[in-house]
Write a structure and sequence with these properties.
The chain has 361 residues and is α/β, with parallel strands linked by helices. The chain has 2 domains: 177 residues, Rossmann fold (3-Layer(aba) Sandwich); 133 residues, Up-down Bundle (Glutathione S-transferase Yfyf (Class Pi), Chain A, domain 2). It is built from 9 helices and 15 strands. Helix 9 links the parallel strand 12 and strand 13.
Length: 361
């Protein structure tokens, strides 16, 4: 058990939804547009970042309300103690700032990663392998945060320093080299930690994937391609050496913001971007399950699967449920009907979602 007593207030089309009595498997059924994915998005806000849709806070607030929203849940940390109360949302006074509370005390969004390891798979992620390199870097970082909450701080600090260096590069005058020295020292410190976190993630994922059979889910081979030196001192020296080049380009051309994740289908040795949509989906599922199994150790795990089972044949669907049973995460699934989930119905808490209202079945 991970989360229970979940409430959504003025969150998208959920004016006031409460889900009690959760289980290891939790199933949300309903027509398209009923609000199933909105529940998963609300749960994804208990991870650092912008949630599974990467939406603006204003988009999450329910229409017709005061422009704010709230999501809360009781977290069973598995230690036999009292549940930890988690809450996040916005206020009418500051709708553009997300607030986070842990047991009623204000906390940071980045700090949420210390309580829960959250993974998700949504239909929008089907284009990950053909999307931009920045989308794959965000994906890497989200997976890395679930294993190491401190990774989020490294990413935030690196992005802040990168923006500052790029601002200096764009100045009409020649900035004082000491300014560059200071900013590049910050970039190198955070950037080395960021790159090494990504590399460690890919190493762990690859080892777990290598243990799995090639079927029924296509097995991917992952390769991390750094966009520059991954050691702090070497990165700092390279940034200093490339100032003239970067000023001509108007942006920083070396560093973790240029990293790439390469994915190849094992056995066929074909880049994932060139594989069929079915093969790409199977590889995404393989990565998601392997990551959830890695993340489940140490902290409570949450796995959010949006419309996954309906697109699998019976063999792969059965294999999916076997893997989910073997994993340690609390699982949330959505579907338009219950039939694809017949194998786990006896183990699942089931709700029907309709127009933003939820009924326990």
């Amino acid at each position: 058990m991970a989360l229970d007593r979940i409430t959504l207030s003025s969150f998208r089309n959920h004016a006031g939804t409460r889900l009690d009595g959760t289980a290891r498997f939790n199933l949300l059924v309903g027509e398209n547009g009923a609000g199933k994915t909105n529940v998963l998005e609300a749960l994804s806000l208990f991870a650092p970042g912008r949630g599974l849709r990467r939406a603006a806070l204003a988009e999450m607030a329910g229409q017709g309300g005061a422009g704010n929203f709230a999501v809360s849940a009781a977290l069973d940390a598995g230690d036999g103690g009292d549940p930890v109360m988690l809450g996040t949302g916005t206020t009418p006074e500051r709708p553009g700032r997300r607030l986070v509370q842990v047991n009623g005390a204000e906390a940071s969004a980045i700090g949420l990663g210390e309580w829960l390891a959250i993974s998700w798979l949504t239909p929008a992620m089907d284009r990950l392998f053909t999307d931009s390199t920045s989308a794959r870097r965000r994906y890497l970082d989200r997976l890395a945060v679930a294993l190491d909450p401190g990774h989020a701080r490294h990413a935030s600090r690196y992005e802040a320093a990168l923006r500052e260096r790029n601002r200096l590069l764009g100045e009409d005058f020649e900035p004082d080299p000491a300014w560059f020295d200071s900013i590049e020292a910050q970039m190198a410190l955070a950037g080395a930690a960021l790159a090494q976190g990504r590399a460690a993630l890919v190493t762990k994922l690859s080892a777990r994937l290598d243990e799995l059979p090639p079927q029924p889910f296509a097995r991917p081979t992952l390769t991390y391609r750094p966009g520059g030196p991954v050691e702090e001192q070497a990165l700092r020296q390279e940034l200093a050496r490339q100032r003239r080049r970067d000023r001509a380009a108007g942006r920083t051309l070396t560093g973790p913001h240029r990293d790439e994740l390469e994915v190849v289908m094992a056995g066929k040795e074909v880049p994932a971007a060139q594989c069929s949509t079915g093969e790409q989906k199977a590889m995404l599922i393989a990565i998601t399950l392997a990551h959830a199994e890695l993340a489940a150790g140490g902290r409570p795990g949450l796995l959010l699967l949006d419309e996954v089972a309906a697109h699998l044949d019976p063999v792969r669907r059965a294999a999916l449920f076997v893997r989910l049973r073997e994993g340690g995460s609390q699982v949330w699934l959505t579907g338009t009907e219950r039939a694809p989930f017949a194998e786990i119905e006896g183990q699942a808490a089931i709700w029907r979602v309709d127009g933003g209202s939820v009924e326990r079945l």
